Amino acid sequence: MKLFTRILITVILTIVSQIGGALYLISIVLIPKKSNSHIFKRASVFVSLYLLFTFLIIPHIAPIFGRVKIEDSKTLESHSFFYKLLNRNYVRPELHDVLITIAEEGRKANKDFKLIYLDANFPFIDNFPLLPHLSHNDGKKIDVTLMYQNKAGVQTNLKPSRSGYGAFVEPNEVEFSQTHFCKENGYWQYDYPKYLTLGTPNDELVFSNDGTKRLLTSILEVEAVGKIFIEQHLKARMSLTNDKLRFQGCGAVRHDDHIHFQIK
Fold first, then answer.
1. What are the backbone dihedrals phi and psi of residue 139, each rounded to the nearest 5 degrees, phi first?
2. Could you write out the DSSP letters of every residue in the chain?
3. Would the pTM count as exceeding 0.90?
């Protein structure tokens, strides 16, 4: 049972943060069981190692693997500290340049604009899965949030959910529901991010059609961007037509809570 528990913890920490499992095993080796208060000491060593590697060491090692840490600024930032703590804020240098370009373009239209990102990629190794995503495994992909406005109609950088995921912009009665179509055809997982909100403290916010359209337009104008995933009813609602705008497939999940885009 003890071996199974250690394996399970190692697997979970590796899945969520890439490096956590290895550091957990190191903490076990450094603090033997015969040591007094070994559980507390192991936990302390693990947390210390994890924070040391995450914030001081990995940012300097990741470039060897072709990744760079996304640097937050006045125009670009993570929606939650969670994504930085779990090492999900790494991209290829080319994508980092694209993010800066899009963020600066958004600031031209709105002096208070911030490009808010969600899951990007892990710092090491191509094809290492960043679950629950199907494709965030090569440093070329990132999710960014939609734009919202408050009850007064003023655009805000706040988002409906704590995670940035799961607060959907539902199709109206005359718009095509890709979610209904996919679920009717057996793809039960299509709207499972509704369970990943971690709460919706700003559920009074409403989707900003104009703000999101401006954001998408600025992404589309970047030559390096190859594909963008967003739900079909939002694409139609914003009157956007471009070959870069794609349907992600029923085997993935719905994209009316965020925008996924990737470079070529």
1. 80, 0
2. -HHHHHHHHHHHHHHHHSSHHHHHHHHHHHS-TTSTTHHHHHHHHHHHHHHHIIIIIHHHHGGGGT-EEPPP-SSEEES-HHHHHTT--EE-HHHHHHHHHHHHHHHHH-TT--EEE---B-SS-TT---TT-SS--SS-EEEEEPPEE-TTS-EES--SSSSS-S------TTS--HHHHHHHTT-GGGGGGGG--S--TTTT-EE-HHHHHHHHHHHHT-TTEEEEE--HHHHHHTT---TTEE---TTS---SSEEEEEE-
3. yes
Q: For the residues of 192-227, what is the DSSP string, one character each? A: GGGG--S--TTTT-EE-HHHHHHHHHHHHT-TTEEE
Residue 243's Cα: distance from chain center in Å? 23
**Domains in the chain, please, with CATH?**
2-63 (no CATH), 68-263 (3.30.1380.10)
- All residues at 6 or more sequence positions from 123 whose CB lies less than 8 Å from its CB, including other chains: 18, 19, 58, 61, 62, 65, 67, 69, 87, 90
Q: What is the pLDDT of residues 193-243, one digit of tens each?
A: 999 999 999 999 999 999 999 999 999 999 999 999 999 999 999 999 999
Q: Given CA atoms 35, 37, 38, 40 in this order, what sign does their dihedral have?
A: negative
pLDDT category at 34 given cuts 50, 70, 90 is confident
Nearest to 130 by CA among 187, 72, 86: 86
Average pLDDT score over the chain = 96
